[in-house]
Amino acid sequence: MEEPIKEPIKGQIDQPLFHRATTTILGGLCFICANKVAPGHIRHLDYGQVLIGEHHQHYQIRPLTPLLNDIVADFKRANIAIKTTEDLPMARWQKLVWNVPYNGLSVVLNATTEEMMADSGITQLITTLMEEVVCVANHWGQQYSTQTPSFRGASADSSATSRALPSGLISQMLSHTEQMTPYRTSMKIDYDEGRPLEIEAILGNPIRVAQTLGIPVPNMRMLYQQLAFLNARNLLC
Fold first, then answer.
1. Which of 95-99, 152-156, 160-164, 222-226 has the lowest mean pLDDT?
2. What is the pLDDT of residues 105-122, one digit of tens each?
3. Domain span at residue 118?
4. pLDDT tens for each residue of 61-103
5. Are 103 and 114 in contact (CB under 8 A)?
6. What average pLDDT does range 184-200 have in this prediction?
7. Which contacts qualify for 46-49: CB closer than 8 Å, 24 or more apart?
8. What is the number of domains present in the chain?
9. What is the pTM of this model?
């Protein structure tokens, strides 16, 4: 029986581990507003659903397995809201659509989600950043469409299914954020506490994917450069 290895809910996959074909790797994403206020003390503010799926070595769709369903059943028995996905890579892109603008701008602007959503100009900038992430995600999805050979650049199977984020995703995220409890993002908390920012995981990696695909993302690049400057200066203090 394969040994399941659970990826941390927040963090990046260990690439050497990821390429061990005999290992089952499960990824989880939390859609939650929560702050760690002290060791062992987490303050839950809003939302709270977990989404899990299984990684595919070549980023393809992974059908649900009995192992995954058993884990979901365990979560449900603990009264934890949880859903599954067969397309974990696109689910991660979907989370970046929120993380890129709100985490990044919360540091640059020294603002909560409520303060950002109250300003029409910033809301437009958030929308523009989201559009850039969606564009990169959808182009990436075309490169790794289902039932295609498992490497970029190979000729696509005629039966391949296109992978793209939901068309109404941006407006839905804006609406949910407008309704949520005023929230200081995880990146803003890290900045306020003098900890290193997750710039590469949230912005650097998708920007490099965009560059590989030949997609311009000027607003993401500008935000990345601003955060890199603020992060370096903050760590010197």
1. 152-156
2. 999 999 999 999 999 999
3. 4-236
4. 888 889 899 999 999 999 989 999 999 999 999 999 999 999 9
5. no
6. 95
7. 46/180, 46/181, 46/183, 47/176, 47/180, 48/80, 48/81, 49/81, 49/82, 49/83
8. 1
9. 0.81
DSSP string covering the chain:
-PPEEEPPSSS---HHHHT-TTSEEEEEEEEEEEEEEETTEEEEEEEEEEEEEE--TTS------HHHHHHHHHHHHTT--EEE-S-HHHHHHHHHHHHHHHHHHHHHTT--HHHHHT-HHHHHHHHHHHHHHHHHHHHHHHHT-BTS-SSTTSPPPTT-B-----TTHHHHHHHHHHHSPP---HHHHHHHTTPPP-HIIIIIHHHHHHHHHT---HHHHHHHHHHHHHHHHHHH-
Catalytic residue check, 95: yes
- Whichever domain contains 204, its CATH number is 1.10.1040.10
> Which one of 10, 36, 76, 95 is the catalytic residue?
95
pLDDT-derived band at 43 (thresholds 50, 70, 90) equals: confident
